[in-house]
Amino acid sequence: MARGRGLNAYLYAPKDDAKHRAQWRERYDPPEMAELQALVHASQSRGVRFVYALSPGLDLRFTDAADVGAIEAKLRQVHGLGVQDFAVLFDDINPDLSAADRERFGTPASAQAFLGNTILRWARSWDPRARVLFCPTEYCGRFATPSVADSPYLRTLGEQLDTDVDVLWTGPEIISEEIPVASIRELRSVLRRKPLLWDNLHANDYDMRRLYLGPYAGRPGALRDELAGILLNPNGQLEANFVPLHTLAAYVRNGDHYHPRQAFQEALAAWLPQFRSRGARPFTLDDLQLMADLFHLPTEHGDRAVRYLDDLRVILHTPANSWGEVAARVEQTTRAIIALYDKATELADRPLLHALYAHLWEVKENALLVGEWAQWRQKHPEATVPFTSPGFRPRIYRGGFTAALERLLPMDEQGRFLPGRPA
Question: Would you name the residues annotated as active-site residues?
Answer without folding.
Answer: 92
